[in-house]
Amino acid sequence: MQQQNPNPNIQSSQPMAQVPEIVSTKDQLYITDMLSWNLNACKKAHFFAEQCQTPELQQALENAGQMHQRHYNKILEHLNTSPQNMN
After folding, report:
1. Please, are residues 22 and 42 in contact by the beta-carbon 8 Å criterion?
2. Please, what is the end-to-end C-alpha distance for the chain in angstroms?
3. What is the mean pLDDT of the chain?
4. Nearest to 50 by CA among 37, 61, 39, 63
5. For helices 25-51 and 55-80, what crossing angle results, to 10°?
6. Pairwise CA distance, residues 32 & 23, whole Å
7. Whole-structure pTM value
8. pLDDT: is 78 or 37 the higher one?
9. What's the pLDDT score for residue 62?
10. What DSSP line would sit under the chain, residue for residue?
């Protein structure tokens, strides 16, 4: 049996036991922001890597851009996976 938090105003650091069935408007807006931030960072890193003359800095910028692209793709992957036990 899971213990109840004595003070409901204080959030616990435990992860959710189950994914909610709905996505709130606030959640949806935050997900949209995360996608936008990662896509923008990816594009900017790629642009600045193309402008850069120093090979080490150019590689670091490309690596940063690839990292943001992986994050973007991972978020999309999570959004595109449907729950296994849908009724």
Report:
1. no
2. 25
3. 85
4. 61
5. 160
6. 12
7. 0.69
8. 37
9. 97
10. -PPPPSSTTSPPSSPPSS--SS--HHHHHHHHHHHHHHHHHHHHHHHHHHH---HHHHHHHHHHHHHHHHHHHHHHHHHHPPPTT--
Pick the closest to residue 41 from 14, 18, 76, 71 (CA basis). 71
Q: What is the dihedral of CA 45, 46, 50, 56, to 10 degrees?
A: 60
Using the structure block, give the residue that is written with the tokens 């949209």: 32
| Assigned token pair, 2 | 């899971």
- How open is the CA angle 67-78-75, to the nearest 5 degrees? 30
> How many other C-beta atoms lie within 10 A of the C-beta of residue 71?
17
